[in-house]
Amino acid sequence: MESYNIIIVGAGMAGLCAAVEATSNNVRVLILEKENEIGGSSLLSGRYMAFADTDIQRQEGIRDSTEILVNDMLSIGEGSNERALVEAYGKHQQETYQWLVQNGVQFHAVQAVSGHSVPRGHQITPKQAIERLFMLAESNSNVTFILNADVKRLRKNKDGKVSEVLYRKDGKEFTAIAEDGVIIASGGFSRSETLLNAFAPQLKGALRIGGNGNLGDGIKLAWEQGAWMRDFPFLKGTYGFHPSADGPRKSQGLVFYKGAIIINEEAKRFVNESISYKSIGTKALEQPNGITYQIWDQAIMNESVHGDALYDFKKLLDLGLIEHANSLNELARKINVPENNLNETIQTYNIDVNKGLDRHFGRSTLTHNFGKLKTISEGPFYGMRTTVAMLATYAGIAVDEHARVLNPYHEPINGLYAAGESVGGFHGAGYMTGSSLGKAAIFGRIAVRTALANIPVTK
């Protein structure tokens, strides 16, 4: 029976950041990953991390601050976030950004994305980030990775501390001991029909495109140990995917954050396009037959950002996922919506934009509090059928600002920590793009620091 200081369940962004953090403390670490490769759903992310007042922003003349970042998160979460978690994110966000840069994670550009008052979506290449962090952790002789290791149970020792990790590999059962703590970083449950049907039946129509291993294993492990859960009532799908995203290519385009509108099969708008794409997804699933389209013109098409996972519209066009036409009538016929309705919808919207007031849905910006609205008037015109997907769940284990897993009485469970998508309470009722990978990195590191501090747990 092998003994380690820390055992980490899951090798995505949270688990790898925890592992690298641990290497600076000269402690023995075991990382157990259920899949046959590292990365998990972090590799499927939209490539953004939310940080404020960085060198990249300053170079672009963007004024931002930790205070604005925290306020945006609380606003998007509609006050349902655990404030202590959001404030901890704010407290550690700049040092974590610098830590990632110093450790070789490459940041390419900054964009305004969902929930941002200013452009603060710092773009990474997930594969580069994951591989870099893995290399740093694996090269340390104190760190052991075991892939294809399916963790089955956690057990407490005689002192009531979670310390035994039971896992299965190659058909055999193994037990490992964690002297200082077990960190759950195994992702959410976007692929678990059992959990989705139990807690989010309203999302039955959403595509299932999360990581193959995202079955809620870590959440169940914590649950058995008495963990409380958070944010299940706020489970939402992600809007912006082409219906083909349930195949090998996860094609996504958020043209509405550059100025497009969203219509249903009757060619009617049904939502304020500047709100979180999670909230848009809820409205989209309520539309007739679940059919919706993004509609935009050439001026907005020119806002395409080459190589960006969310804003490379020209790539989507080249892949044949976007319809285009010289007139709105022709576009309406191509996407099979009423011509008169589409013309009326566009005309009404353009009038409102020119007057500075969206009379029907109150849209006043492109995303959250950022960006000036644009008319849709310069042909050719474009339309992309768009749907909702379960890419990540953002609900789960209750933790405090030290990443300690909490029981229903808000007391820490001795020896048990969690970070990343397994955790609930951080996002609340909404979601800010980039905060998922951001919180994975921040709280993965915090979990290690807390575990090694050996803070006594009293009840």
Summed up:
This protein is α/β, with parallel strands linked by helices and 459 residues long. Helix content is 30%, strand content 23%.
What can you see in these coordinates?
The protein has 459 residues and is α/β, with parallel strands linked by helices. The chain contains 13 helices and 20 strands. It has helices at 13-23, 55-59, 66-76, 83-102, 126-138, 193-199, 217-224, 277-285, 298-301, 313-318, 328-335, 339-355, 435-453, and strands at 2-9, 29-33, 48-50, 107-111, 121-124, 143-147, 150-156, 162-169, 172-184, 207-208, 229-230, 238-241, 261-264, 292-297, 323-325, 381-390, 396-398, 404-406, 412-418, 423-424. The two termini are 30 Å apart.
> What percentage of amino acids are in beta strands?
15-25%
Name the helicity range.
25-40%
How many helices in DSSP terms? 13
Biggest sheet record: 8 strands, mixed
* Poorly predicted parts: none
Tally the beta strands.
Answer: 20
Euclidean distance between termini CA atoms: 30 Å
- What's the mean pLDDT score? 95
Taking all Cα atoms into account, the compactness measure Rg is 23 Å
Molecular shape: elongated
List the helices and strands and how they pair.
Elements: E1 2-9, H1 13-23, E2 29-33, E3 48-50, H2 55-59, H3 66-76, H4 83-102, E4 107-111, E5 121-124, H5 126-138, E6 143-147, E7 150-156, E8 162-169, E9 172-184, H6 193-199, E10 207-208, H7 217-224, E11 229-230, E12 238-241, E13 261-264, H8 277-285, E14 292-297, H9 298-301, H10 313-318, E15 323-325, H11 328-335, H12 339-355, E16 381-390, E17 396-398, E18 404-406, E19 412-418, E20 423-424, H13 435-453
Parallel strand pairs: 1-2, 1-9, 2-6, 9-19, 10-16, 17-20
Antiparallel strand pairs: 3-5, 4-5, 7-8, 8-9, 11-17, 12-16, 13-14, 14-16, 15-16, 18-19
Helix pairs in contact: 1-5, 1-13, 3-4, 4-13, 11-12
